[in-house]
Amino acid sequence: RKRCMVCRPGRTMSEGKLIILSGPSGAGKSTVIRQILERHPDFFFSVSATTRQPRGGERDGVHYHFITPAQFEGMIAGQALLEYNHYASGDYYGTPAEPVRRVLDRGGTVLLDVEPNGAFQVLEKLPQAVMVFLAPPSLAELRRRLESRGDTPPDKVEARLKQAHWELAQAPHYTYLVVNDQVDVCVAQVEAILQGGPEAAACRYENQSEVEILKEVLSHAV
Ligand code: ADP
Ligand code: 5GP
After folding, report:
1. Ligand 1 mean position to 187 CA, how many Å?
2. Closest residue by CA, ligand 1 atom 18
3. What is the C-alpha to C-alpha distance for residues 59 and 36, in angstroms, rounded to an integer?
4. What is the bridge-based pairing of β-strands 48-50 and 2-3?
5. What is the distance in A from the centroid of ligand 1 to the CA of 134?
6. Residue owning the nearest CA to atom 12 of ligand 2
7. SS3 content of the chain, % helix, strand, coil (to 5)
8. Is the CB of 100 under 6 A from ligand 2?
């Protein structure tokens, strides 16, 4: 049993699994996570706190805890967050530490959807975290997905695409890279990674040099 960095000093943690999924907004993280949770209802999705407005269909406490900037800053001050980030949009996003600690303590599987800054903060505290980067097949397809979701105003689409360049350039810091072209293929690959299946090796970043989106993004100075 290891010391748990999220826990209060002196506590220990059993071998719970922590999976960090990052990728640009619109890559399909929510879609993939939803399908994984349908197939594994025992997995725990860490519901983040955010100061951004809910999108149509998003429910408080399910997709996010929608809170005010003052409440968020209270959580930072109270050290209630495992990690947090002040995102390009101006909104705060963060992972409440306590639920993650509880599930890892009892040996459960936790899924985190966080952008790279947050992912690196978590990895520092919990080095056993499995880092998975979810990429869209191309920047053009990412734009199409962001526009077709219909809940992001045009200026915010541009801001998110700009952010996407930086995020995609962080992919080399992840252990695994999965391209979300066909959702079912992508879900099967993430599952193989979670379960340590033989298909997981093909998804390791170092085996993915032929992925088009990486060539597209990493060939430009970011
Ligand atoms: P994220 O959570 O990464 O911001 P979403 O899961 O909300 O992304 O997906 C963005 C949009 O793209 C949604 O409208 C979703 O239905 C769509 N989408 C997700 N995966 C795919 C895919 N493999 N092919 C086509 N559209 C997809
Ligand atoms: P969205 O507004 O599209 O739901 O999320 C925008 C970005 O915030 C995504 O890149 C998503 O991964 C990231 N995000 C969501 N929750 C958290 C969190 O708790 N912490 C951090 N650092 N990023 C988050």
Report:
1. 12
2. 28
3. 19
4. unpaired
5. 11
6. 114
7. 45, 20, 35
8. no
**Which DSSP helix (H) or strand (E) runs through 162?**
helix 154-168
> How is residue 160 written in tokens?
């998110």
What are 41-76's pLDDT values in tens digits? 999 999 999 999 998 889 999 999 999 999 999 999
Centre of ligand 2 to C-alpha 10, Å, is 31
Share of the chain above pLDDT 70, in %: 92
Tens-place pLDDT, residues 117-169: 999 999 999 999 999 999 999 999 999 999 998 888 888 899 889 999 999 99
Q: What is the 3-state secondary structure (H, E, C) of 4-69?
A: CCCCCCCCEECCCEEEEEECCCCCCHHHHHHHHHHHCCCCEECCEEECCCCCCCCCECCCEEECCH
Range of 85-94, 123-132, 201-210 with top mean pLDDT: 123-132
Mutation test residue for ligand 2: of 22, 115, 117, 168, the one with most atoms within 8 Å of CB: 115
